[in-house]
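hey can u check if this looks right to u? its 159 residues, i copy pasted from the old doc so theres a chance i mangled smth
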Amino acid sequence: MRHGKKFNHLGRKSAHRKAMLSNMACSLIEHKRIVTTLAKAKALRVFVEPLVTKSKNDTTHSRRTVFRYLKSKEAAAELFRTIAPKVENRQGGYTRIIKLPNRQGDNAEMAMIELVDFNELLLADATPKKKTRRRRKSAPKADATENVETKTEDSKEEE
């Protein structure tokens, strides 16, 4: 029975699980996107999103709190310098999990977890493009006017 099982323990003791999630969070903050198993990605989302929310308030206390979870000065600095200003207006949902094909070796469900505001491909698509229409009737009209001009030139040469 799963009485009182609030989160996925990922088959690890608590110290190992906390260290693993801390390392994965540092990698996610540094690279903005990582590929892992689906279960770990879901656990990482629960771990990272409160840290990103905490980083929006740039105080000494919030920096120390975030550093206590990440245990990496570079990752904490990156979180406060680049990520927090970009997600300032977002109310939550800082990460996106995209399912990938199963892993070849053990058929584990794989997923890619990424920070939402740092996906260049989707951000490029979000910019509105100028609408273009193809007018097929205009092209034949241009040909017709060219024929008329050539006929008039030919008729002038005959005269």
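Residues 116 and 149 are 58 Å apart (CA to CA).
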